[in-house]
Amino acid sequence: MSTVIQLRASQSEKPIVQGGRQAKEAYRTREYLTEAEIERLLEAAGKSRNPTRDRLLVLLAFRHALRVSELVDVKVEQIDLKAATIHIRRAKNVTPGIHGLQGDEFRLIRALLREQPNSTFLFLSERKAPLSVDGVQKLVERLGQAAGFAFPIHAHMLRHSAGYALAGRGVDTRTMQAFMGHRSISNTVIYTAVADKRVRNIWGK
After folding, report:
1. pLDDT tens-digit profile of 39-51?
2. H or E element: which one contains 61?
3. What is the pTM of this model?
4. Is position 156 annotated as part of the catalytic site?
5. Which one from 67, 90, 154, 160 is the annotated catalytic residue?
6. CB count in 10 Å sphere of residue 14
7. What are the CA-CA distances from residue 193 to residues 179, 183, 203 (Å)?
């Protein structure tokens, strides 16, 4: 019996991934940012070395609930400036969709296109190559530090933030499923369950 206890104790002391990341809980207590925190992140992005690109990157990822792979894959041809829309190509064989662009997104897109007039991809590195997934991850981490967050953040949190923000505004689950590109609605109800105001305010009745 003592041997089994010692074995379990030694196993619990090992990192979950040898030489890699530990459990998510070791890094952060939640997987999303509030809308106020998104504003702080945007403010920090506006003070970066590439303010137009970085503000637009945060806005598009949040407003359109983009996965990092979808974000780096956005091409200029997907944007219709006349209609103020963007064609969203979803990963994981999910049906694509067309999303409207808000005024601040539209202005940033036009400014970025003026800075890089012949680019195929929307988001470029300083070397004028398409941003990689790893490049976006590191960029968002740096912006989180610049924004003064007391916890580390990662790029996928922007997608989660969109889900919780939409649920908090009362958007119905089926609409959210289509907007976020979920194949299964079970992935969508996670947001609505956490944001359900009936549960949040149950003691206030």
Report:
1. 999 999 999 999 9
2. helix 51-63
3. 0.80
4. yes
5. 67
6. 8
7. 17, 18, 17
